[in-house]
Amino acid sequence: MKKKKVSQASPVRRRKSAKLWQxxxxxxxxxxxxxxxxxxxxxxxxxHLKGLYRITVIDLLKHPxxxxxxxxxxxxxxxxxxxxxxxxxxxxxxDIDNVIVGLELRASAARx
Length: 112
Hints:
Elements: H1 11-17, E1 21-27, H2 32-48, E2 53-59, E3 77-82, E4 87-90, H3 96-102, H4 105-111
Parallel strand pairs: 1-2
Antiparallel strand pairs: 1-3, 3-4
């Protein structure tokens, strides 16, 4: 009996077909809370979304008009733009489990 060859999609092909996660982190200047939020977000993304995410940091001291579009009331605030639906998490993102649940990363990891 001959063994059948099973072809697997290369990692590059899978990455191209996967959707890019677009995340916006609203901060005010380089405060300790802002720095912690970015560091915590980067850590979560590198573990769960390696190569499939884009973080845009928006400093509201430099661009206050951008707060209105995503209805930002506190900083730091993380807004997941894509994939939809939009999700928002307020704080320095130090509760990693809360960030994973808030961004719905567990469900995404199970699908991959």
